[in-house]
Amino acid sequence: MDIQSLMKELHFMQQSYATLFSVTNKVQAQGDEKLDILTSRQHMTLIAIAHMSLENATLMNIARKLDTTKQTANKSVTSLEKKGYVRIEPSKTDKRSINVVITNEGKQALVTSSEKTTLFLEEIFHEFTTDEIETFWNLLQKLYRFDGKTQDGFEEKATLEFKEQLQSDLDSYQEKVLTEFSKRRYGGANNE
């Protein structure tokens, strides 16, 4: 390969890295503003916990799911605990560990923030087609694997169980949110 081609390729890598860094910061900052009751990090921490069984929701596993340090996960869990959205329980399987449990208030916070989160995602991706979003996700996963490790993603269903009233609220919220999402994304057309 000639030097010009190598320089061009390196330039695109540098620009991609710088843009990824900036986009991550921008999305987190604007997400913090839009989510209102939760920061983006707190929201993702609750989502991570919801994707784990109770016995697996340890600080170490939360950190692994979010690909962050145990100290950063602990800071996020502590802030959620202060808000009453999670509680800490001793692990029944490992006396050296604790388990993080989402409280009913935390579940309600997730339901309440779901509309804002969904509409924020629509705002972020409004210029993308569904195929472009899928390609983007696949490319991000490919980028994540640069060191040979795959992401412990969020593809599996969350394990949260809701009280009957909260489940009813969630179902109602979901219908309302999807209607608004469809209206914004497709100009009101119901594409079922």
From TrEMBL:
PROSITE patterns: HTH_MARR_1, HTH_MARR_2
Record has Transcription regulation as a keyword: yes
Domain HTH marR-type stretches: 1-145
Leader sequence residues: none
Keywords linked to the UniProt accession: DNA-binding, Transcription, Transcription regulation
InterPro entries on file: HTH_MarR-typ, MarR/SlyA-like, Tscrpt_reg_MarR-type_CS, WH-like_DNA-bd_sf, WH_DNA-bd_sf
Source superkingdom: Bacteria
Pfam entry (one): MarR_2
Positions of transmembrane segments: none
PANTHER family registered for this protein in UniProt: DNA-BINDING TRANSCRIPTIONAL REPRESSOR SCOC, TRANSCRIPTIONAL REGULATOR, MARR FAMILY
This protein's name: MarR family transcriptional regulator
Organism: Oceanobacillus neutriphilus
Upper classification of the organism: Bacteria, Bacillati, Bacillota, Bacilli, Bacillales
